[in-house]
Amino acid sequence: MAVTQESVFIKLGDHQTLHLRRIANQQPSGPVVLLIHGAVENGKIFYTHSNKGLAPFLAEHGYCCYVADLRGRGESKPAICKQARYGQTEAIVEDIPAFIEKIEQLESKKPDFLVAHSWGGVLLNSVFARFPELINDVKACAYFGSKRSLLNNHPKKLFQANLIWYFMAPILAKKHGYLPAKRLKWGSDDETQKSHYQSMQWAKKNPWIDSDDGFDYAKTLANLTLPPTLHIAAVKDKALAQPIDIQKFIDESGTGVQKMQIYGRRFGHKVDYDHINMLTHPQARQEQFIDVLNWFEAAKAN
Predict the structure, then answer these.
(1) What is the pTM for the complete model shown?
(2) 278, 285 in Cβ contact below 8 A?
């Protein structure tokens, strides 16, 4: 059956509307997947309208995918501007729970599987810490280039993180009232001043503690067993998620099965992937996408 797409909108309070893109190939739907993007991004990292990307790939294999646009990003409205006062705390305690609730209304169950790119993995594990009752509903996760703290000292990291994200970005966010990352060609979407500040503090190796209410994510997760998680690393991802960074994220994300796999020519793959094309390169369908599918299929069988 052909893969079809439709938009689902969620009214969040009086001033915000969240967007989900439903991508599936059958009715009734198969296993349900929620996909969460990272910082300076939106849900388009997972799909195109012409059905390229991970979400359409999973839909071809019978999965019902819901791709989220976090508040102010993508087709969620209004777009981020200088009046936006929300940050990653709101994404963790309001946006992602609202996505899950809406999916349950539409599919009569919560998501079976979770997928994240980059900072989206940190947000999802933070959701598990805040709402541990969700853990038993999720059969498995797949995180592409997800890390919390940056431990590596590669020159690209020193430029992209230390110079741009830690030094220039706060100045620009203060000047404009938000971080105009899309205009600067730093990403596909913007960030609020608060979301940038909060993510910057965690990326700097500061404790995994919420700046709003002091919730200790690391302490909470240490006592939790999270769903089996496949962590995908890329050999050319030198700045944002080297294996050392991903391993640190694994180590502080509780107990449970967590596997890291690195993608590049020296590991038998056809492409040396980077932080973005690990999800957008056409060859990914034959390599990491297949591995994610197999990871999910194995979890279904258990």
Answers:
(1) 0.97
(2) no
